Structure of Beta-ketoacyl-ACP reductase:
Amino acid sequence: MPENTPQTVLVTGGNRGIGHAIATAFKEAGHNVCITYRSGEAPTDFFAVKADVRDSASIDAAYKEIEAKFGPVEILVANAGITKDMLLMRMKETDFTDVIDTNLTGAFRVIQRATKGMLKLKRGRIILISSVVGLYGGPGQVNYSSSKAALVGMARSITRELGARNITANVVAPGFINTEMTAVLPEETQAKYKESIPAGRFAEPEEIANVVTWLASDQAAYISGAVIPVDGGLGMGH
């Protein structure tokens, strides 16, 4: 497709934080942007559909609503995720399975549904939002790290299955980002984290969005199965 042709974009969990920045970047590029949200009021700045990535029927209903409005999803950003941090010895099994069901199986559900339209179109871009923790590890995050690391295998398997159909699947692994979650951390804690980052600062959500929109563009058409860290050097290629 011509680079300036509007495409249908879906960003799961696009109502706040990194997801909202990604959705905004696609909107500013002229695309038809849809987001999912799970609770609260529907955001008014995008075409928002209420959906729960833990529920296949909910995901299917969301896609039907999007397809009726804009047609098949051409660019999917699997961003929705949760954390339930706890040290391994104290972590309940439900703490582990809940995070896996949302972050990993949830990504599977939205990707599988998106590929139906992409296969018919014979093109598509799938971008999975992982984390530096998925490659680097993190104390108290066995569940979260596992879910985010597994997205790499998912993207690479999708690449081997669908690469010949002009469908790419890549992973973006953000580090520490300036969001509401990091803003509430004590200044001493923030300073400690920044000392471990070669760049010496947290990233802005827009810096993640820039990488995601580039991966969705024609410029990145020959990139698939890749993991791109956006972490200021924290992970050093792990």
